[in-house]
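Our collaborator T.R. sent over the components below with a one-line note: 'Predict the complex.' Nothing else. No constraints on interfaces, no templates requested, no preferences about which chain binds where. So this is a plain run: every listed entity goes in together, and whatever single assembly comes back becomes the starting point for the next discussion.
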Amino acid sequence: MNQDSPTTRAPDPDSDSDQHQYAHRYTGALAQQIEARWQDWWDEHHTFETPNPSGPLADAERLGDRPKLFVLDMFPYPSGTGLHVGHPLGFIGTDVYSRFQRMAGYNVLYSMGFDAFGLPAEQFAVQTGQHPAITTAENVVNMRRQLRRIGLSHDPRRSIETTDPAYYRWTQWIFSQIFNAWYDTDTQRARPVADLVAQFEAESRPTPDGRPWSDLSSNERVRIIDGYRLVYISEAPVNWCPGLGTVVANEEVTADGRSDRGNFPVFKRNMRQWMMRITAYADRLIDDLDLLDWTDSIKAMQRNWIGRSEGARVRFASPAGPITVFTTRPDTLFGASFMVLAPEHPLVDTLTTPEQRQAVADYRRTASAKSDVARQVVDKTKTGVFTGSTATNPVNGEQIPVWVADYVLMGYGTGAIMAVPCGDERDFEFARQFGLQIPAIQQPPPAWFDGHSIGPSLDTRHWPQAFVGDAPYVNSTNGQLDLNGITNVAAATHQTNDWLVAHGQGEPTINYKLRDWLFSRQRYWGEPFPIVYDEHGNPHTLPDALLPLELPPTDDFAPRTFDPDDAQSNPESPLDRLDWWVDVELDLGDGPKRYRRDTNVMPQWAGSCWYELRYLDPTNEACFVDRDVEQYWMGPQGDGHPGGVDLYVGGVEHAVLHLLYARFWHKVLHDLGYVSSIEPYHRLFNQGYILAAAFKDEREIYVDAFGVEERDGQFFYEGTAVSREWGKMGKSLKNAVSPDEIYDAYGADTLRLYEMAMGPLDASRPWETRDVIGMYRFLQRVWRNLVDEESGTVRSDLPALDDATNRALHRTIDGVRRDMGDLKFNTAIAKLIELNNHLTKLGGCPRDIAEQMALMLSPLTPHIAEELWQLLGHTDSITYEPFPQADAALLIDDTILVPVQVDGKVRSRITVTADADDDAVRQAALADPKVIIALGNSSPRKVIVVPGRLVNIVT
RNA sequence: GCCCGAGUGGCGGAAUGGCAGACGCGACGGACUCAAAAUCCGUUGUCCGAAAGGGCGUGUGGGUUCGAAUCCCACCUCGGGCACCA
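Returned assembly:
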C-alpha cells in the first residue's frame, strides 16, 4: 500500500551524522555557504556591471569589441506574500541565458526592476492599513533579498522602481509628449501638436466648420486642437467598477464582464474620462507583428484583439435620413431584406412610427436593463421589435423593414446592420424568428444540400441554415451592377465596392474592435497626471521643470469603493480630497495663475510601458534615455529589423495588456524621434507556469496540500476524501512551496538546476518536490568527482584523460553549446549528467577536463562553478571566461555503429568506418548474419543507405 | 461557434522524416552496514518465452514514404484566447 504523501515537503537528505565524516561533502549546508560567499564576492567586485558605449555608465575597457545582447524579464509586482518556487522560473531562464551569452562573448544587459504602482500593491496596503509607500518599499526589499539568493546576475546599477519619483518623472514626461502629439493620417505617424497649429495657421488644413482659423476664439482653437491629441478627454461608455471604485480599460475586463483584478462586476456607463488614441495605431500594431519573433499564439491574440476587418460602409435611405451600416460582405447587398439597429442607435426614435412607439420603448427599456453579462447569456433566441419604418436598399431600390434588436451592438461598426438572412447565420435566425423574407442570392453547391439531406433549391423555406462561402451569385443584378454567375466572394465584393463608390452609396472601409485606451483611474497609488486646468477648464501639461509631480502624501489614501453591484455609484478620486494639493498657483510660462490639478492617476500599465528603456540609461537626468545609448542596445539591426529587446521572457497573461500598451507608447516615442527602434520587444518568449497539485474537499474548499495523503490512488485530508486538480502555484490554492525550504535542503544551485531540468522553458509543468533530489545528487557527484570530501581540496587520485572520455567531453560541449543558445536548458542538463555519469564510472574527473566541466556548468549553477574554478587555482570569476569550444576532429569517430533495417524494422547493427562509401556499407549490411536470417528466402529489391544514419533493406 | 497550442512508460520529459522512451524521479534487485540512511553497481514500455529471440507500442482512423511520434486529411480529448463583432 502506497502511503506516500503526493505533495511532499523537502526531506533532509543529510539527516545523518555522515557529515562529520565528510566535512567537505556537497550538502545543502555547504551549498548555502558557497552561495552566500559568491553572492557577496560578485557584489564586491561589481562582476555584473554592464558597460554602455557612452555616458556615465561607459567603460571602454570592459566593453571591448563585444557585440551587445539585451535580455529582459517582465518585471514583477512586489507583492507582500513573498516568492514561491513558481515565480523565478523565467528569471532563472534569463539568468542562465545571460550568463551563457556573456561567456559566448556578448556584452549582455540584464537587470531587474519593480512594477510597484497599481492595484495589487494598493489593495495590500488597504488591507494592512499601512501606507502603500511603506509596504511597497518593504516588499521590494524582501523581494530583492529573495531574488539575490537565487544568484541572478543583474546589473544592480540599472534597477528601477516605477514608484520612484526619479523614474515616474519620465513616465509623466512621456505622457506629456503623447498629450502634445496628434496622429497625422497623411504621413501615418504621430507629430507634435505645434505642427498641427502651424498647419491651421497657414490654412493648409481646414477647420472643422470651414471658418478661417484667424476668426476663431482662442477657446475654440483649444477645443479643436484638443480633439486631435493622442491623449484626450471624452464622454463615452466606459467600464465602471464600483467594487474597485475606479473605471478600468477594456483589456482589464474579463470575458464574463468582471474586473481582471478583484473579480468585481463591471458596468458600461457614460463618463468623462481620459483616453489614449491607441486606435490610431491599429494598423501598425497589426502589421508590425510580422516583424517580430513572437509565438503565433500571442500574435493571434493581438490580431484578434485589434480585430481588423475589411468591408464597406453602405448608406440606406430612410425617413430619418441615411442609415449607415458596416458590412464585411457588400457582395451580398442584393440579399439584404431587412435592417437591424442597436437599441441605443440615435435614429431609432425618429424611425419609430406612432403605432410602434410603445413596443419599441418597451424593448429598449428591457435591453438597457440587461448588463453586458446578461446580453451574452447563451440564450440563443433572438429578440427584436419592428420600428414601423422601411429603408431603401441602394442596389435594387427595394423597401426593407427596419428593426431594433440587441444582437446588434452599438459599440461595433455603426451600430446598424443590413441583414442578409440567406448568407448570415444570425440574420437567418432572426428572419425565421419573425417570419421575414429570406431571398437567395447564391446557388450553394450540391454537396451543401446533400450535407443537409435536402434537394437543391433556391427556395430558402427548405434551408436549415444560412449558406456562407463561395458559390455562383443569382438574383444579383440591377442593370449596372451584375454579379450573377460570379463564383467567388472577393471578385463580387470588388465589383460591388466600385459600384457603391461610383454611385455615392458607400465606400470600402476598415473596422476595428480595438477601442481607445481608457487611461484614468480614480485610485491613489499611481502616477498623478501632469495636468492642470485653467479657468476655462482647458487642460495644460505641466512644464518639464515642474516634473516630477509627486504623489501627495496622505493617510487618507484608500479609494472610495462601493457595493460591487451598485451600478449607479460614481467614482471619487482620493486625490480630490486634498484641496491644498488640487488648487495651486503656477507659472506655466505666462505668469502666475490659479489652476486646478487633475486628480486622476495613471493605470498600473503606465510604468511598464517604457521601463526597459530606463534600464539602458538609469542615471540620465537630462532625458529618459540617451539616443546613442538606445541606438546601441535597441536599434534596428539591418533592413527590415524593427530593433528592440533581443530576448523578452514573461508569462502569456499580458498578451493584450502590457504588450499592446508598451508597443503603442514605443511607437509614439519612435514617431516623435526619441527612439530608433520601432518595436520594444523583438523576440518574445513565453515561459510556462509551475503548476502544483491542489486539493478540494466536498465543500469545494481548498485544503492544505501538504497535509494530503495518497492511498491507492485516492487522496485524503484528515481522513476525508479530497479531489485533486492542477493549478498555478499560489496562496489561494494552498499549495505554494517556498524557495527557502529548497535552499535549506539543497541550496540555490540545485533549485536552479531542477527548475531548468523539469522540461522546456515554455511548457507548464507540475512541481514535484521529491524530484528535486535528482539534481542535488548530480551536483554532489560532480563535486565528488573532483573534490576530496575530507580535505576539501582537488583530489590527488584523479584518473588520467583517455580518448573515449575526451571524445565524450567534446560531444557534450558541442551539444550543450547548441542547447544553451536555443534556450533548451533541459536537454543541456541531460547531456552534462550523461558526461558526469561517464566520469563517475571512470572514478573521477580527469584534471585535464575539470575546467571545461566547471565552465559548462557555470551558467546553470554559477555558485558551485565559481567554487570549483577557484579550487582549480583561478583567482578571478568564471563569469567572463569563454565557453568551451568543441574540437570538430573529436566529434567524428573512426568507426560508427549503423542500424540495419529489413522492411523498416531494425534487425541488426553493423560497425563500419566513418568514411565508408555507400556501396561498402550496403555490402556489409547484406553480409551481416542477423540480416541474412531476417531476410530468409526473400531477396532484397532495394537497399537504401542513409550515410552515417542507417541502412534499410526492402524486400 | 471561430482562432492558437498540446496528446509519448507509474510520473516530469527526450527524439521534429532515419535505432521511440535520452536525462531525472519512483520502483525492484545487489554491494557496503549490526541495522538504517547516504553512496556505489544493475534492472525497469508492454505481451509471449526458461533463454535466445519474437509480437505489439507515441489519443483514434486513414494517407504520403524504402522508412512516420514527427508530414497530410478526418475525428476524439485536454489547455488557452475570442465570441450575437455584422
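Summary for T.R.: The first strand of chain A starts at residue 68 and ends at 73.
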